[in-house]
Amino acid sequence: MHVSCNNCGIEDLLEFSKNVDEVFLEFLSRYDKGLVTEKGLSEGLKDEGIVRAESEIKSMIGKNKPDKITEEILFSKKDYVSQYKVLSNPEPKMGCKVEDMGLDESITEHLKGLGIEQFYKFQEDAIGEITYGENVVIEAPTASGKTEAFLIPVIQRIKKDANDGNVFAIFVYPTKALARDQFPKIKKFAQKIRVKVDVFDGDTKLSDRREIIENLPQILVTNFDVLHYHMWHQTKFSSILSSTRILVTDEAHVYSGIFGSNVHYIIKRLKRICTNKLQFVAASATLEDAKEFCEKLFGEDMQKIQGSGKKGQTDFAMLFPSLRTQRALMVELTKKLTQKKHKTMVFNNSHLNSELLAIQAKKQKVNIKVHRAGLMANYRTSVEKQFKEDMLDAISCTPTLELGIDVGNVDCVISSTIPVNRLIQRIGRAARKGQRGYAFLALGNDPISQYYKNHPDDYFEDTEKTYIDPKNPFVEEFQVLAMACDRPISKHELKEHQEVIEHHIIKENLKEFNNRIIPNFDKINPLLNEYSIRGIGKSIDIFLNGKKVGDRILPIALEELHKDAIYFLAGIRYKVKEFDYPRKNYAKIEKIPRDHPYYTKSLTEEWPTIETVFERRVANGVEVAFCKLHIEKKVYGYVNIELGQEVAQGEKVLLDTPLEYDFVTKGIVFHAPRPLKVMEESEDEEYTEASGYHATEHVVIEGSNMITGGVSQDLGGISLGTSGLIFIYDGAIGGSGASKALYDRFEKALERSMFIVKECPCKNEAGCPRCTFSYRCGNNNEYLHKYSALEILERINNGEKTELVDPTEGDRPLV
Question: Which residues does UniProt call coiled coil (predicted)?
Fold first, then answer.
């Protein structure tokens, strides 16, 4: 703990044992003995990498002129300042004048009425290519005019080509909330040019649905969930989709992982039922590999159009919490900014962290509420409205608010660790009105954050890699069934899915009739009704006082909603009093006292079995295979973790009846070399070896985090005792593509993992949350050995060779 006096400047660094009074008494004792001087510990703190020297911070600032609040944070000596810079964008490149674009006169007149005399260059390019009929992906920063870049050419095409009475274009958004947020803006623009726009989603009233179907809009705003449902049910709504000429997909980066794999098939199904060849337009603020990703998503060649940024500047600081937790840093930043009347968005990377931050910020008298998936839609809408109308000072949110939902004026963005291109999108929410913006990246008490503390330039190189896996066997299996429901499959088509089709025929899910393949509706209706395109697996409904208040998808629900689990909902903690699985799939929760000191984390056991090997190669000297895996998992208990702690080892409690489930996924397996030197110095060689492999598994997952696009939260891991076998797998049923991204970049992950352990200053044999601990660890972060892991990683990076062999069968190859 860092103890200092604001008046005289004396300071000291002392061991903290959960008792602030003891620390302060020790500080006074050391002062009386002359061990603390007014000169302070600046050099010592600098040498230990705890804070930056003032001269280094001033060098970072250079000729920039941060305001008082930014200076106060940079020179607080509470955190290590890894990076400070002013993010400013050059003037956007300007394009042609509106009247020179050759647009319909009604569009030109409307734009001039809005005061728009000239397009940005990327808008000019997008309008030209889309009007010409090309498939286009628009990559441009938040609030730069992407909507206009695709809306104007679509309206131009409608005015020029469309026959009245048909749906010409479908605008798809990843969530109902975003679609509803964008709809008024689109409708207002289109109505002036006499183009009809309607929104059709799960919240559209039955009477409005009838009106839409009877009086078709030319532009339909919806989401992929609606398209999926109505196509396979062959509803009246699905019949109106066949005239579609253009599919516009906004926020395309969201369609990564399982969701994106399903969307790939939904697009393929839409192509099947459309009478015209579909044109595709995608837009995103964050896609680094926009062209390649969208070509895989849409199954078509795409042109990329790059947009320029907004005007204005934002003070940006990357802070590492040397002397406190990440959450404590984020709470203090939130408090400081909101006290100065700066409206603040705080981005967290998980449901739990968004809830914990709001709870702790409220204790500091911050006017803040939670916004995340899993909360009821009306609650989220209420939070957005309150923030927009200045009734809230701050929102603690998950990536749900990365999307373009309008929450009004934002001055400051505080974010936990994410890939830099997504951080830039989050920062883009701030200072849209030209005021000075503030942005803080709060590094965490975790391995990758410690790496970035020491290598901040690498952070700006680690752009997100989006990924989908169309060959996920479960996605393919369900989507082929849906295709047959959309429209019978003729004998000559879908040859690439022939094996799956034959499998369904044998199981009598599909049947042959008049040389066509048709669905056996009675048998497959229940299967398709239970299927979620946003994640494979059923959901557990959450009830409070008999009313549904949320849901959580399986299998993660078993780890968060078991009996007696503490569950967070809208900034309030509840206890699970009843959990019914697998019979009825619900959880009943009840409120607990505010001063309840703990939250819970589940304890799990896992066992992997290799079913198929897809690829194998040698990384450095280590043989690694990419496989289909069968994972057996058991939730057997939980630990109570004290509020305010990040990754800790808590008090264990065993469940009366363990919860078991198993699933098939994809992952990698490699054989780590033995840590011979550390084992020789150890009294218990077996413990040292097994604990080294366990720690290596943790560090490789965390070390891969930003290399693979921030997907470590999508990965699970297993180390098998002293065998040296380490498995890292996709947490999503069937596989999401995350482990394949790791497989492709495995050398870089191994090198980074070594530096994470090597550069961690902790002296603990087991390591600490900044090197070997993991908040996802199913066995309470026990059986870890930092120095053993370091030797293993050094041996790997030095090129020591290993092969995948079965430890129970001598030298027989494992795969």
Answer: none
